[in-house]
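Please describe our next protein:
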Amino acid sequence: MELEFAFFTDQFIEEREQFQTYDTTSIFINYKDTQFEMIDTPGHLEFLKKMITGASKAGEAILIIDINEGIKEQTVIHTMIIKLLGVKRPIILINKIDLINYNFEKYQKVEYKIKEFLAPYGFSDCIIIPISAKVGDNIFSNSVNTPWFRGNTLIKELTLLKSEESGSDTPLRLPVQDSLFFKNNCLMIIRSILGA
């Protein structure tokens, strides 16, 4: 089924029908001797609160940019948020390179614009990987469709990440899912850090 891999995290029927993430979802992935908790967050601005909820729980960030759409308003806002949350070196995935027939010149132009955009945020040395999430280019193995790309695959870059140990001297951070107001009282819905 087309886009079946997206359904690992897009579990609502509406998400599957619209091919769009509406809610934050976590899944665990074991790869060799490394375990990852992948937190999928919505990309659209109308779901910004849910993006912040998921991002506040993450130690690293992957920004996915559509090669045909480039940098959009939500890209700018998400970049500011991950900078605010302390991410030092995000992984940037330039997605849908299959739609430009793996054209290196087109990819290079988009990559240059992204590097130029990220530099003021202190992300000038970030990792940029051309991918096709649909067909799996440069996700687990280097793609024959991108002989011009000499970098690591996404999974290789993820295994190279060093997880920071959380110490007792770090500030407490609780991801808030939503706030409900009843007259003069406010109830905050806080997602459990332990997943209980």
Observations:
- Residues 192-196 have pLDDT under 50 and may be disordered.
- The chain has five helices and seven strands.
- The longest helix spans residues 104-118.
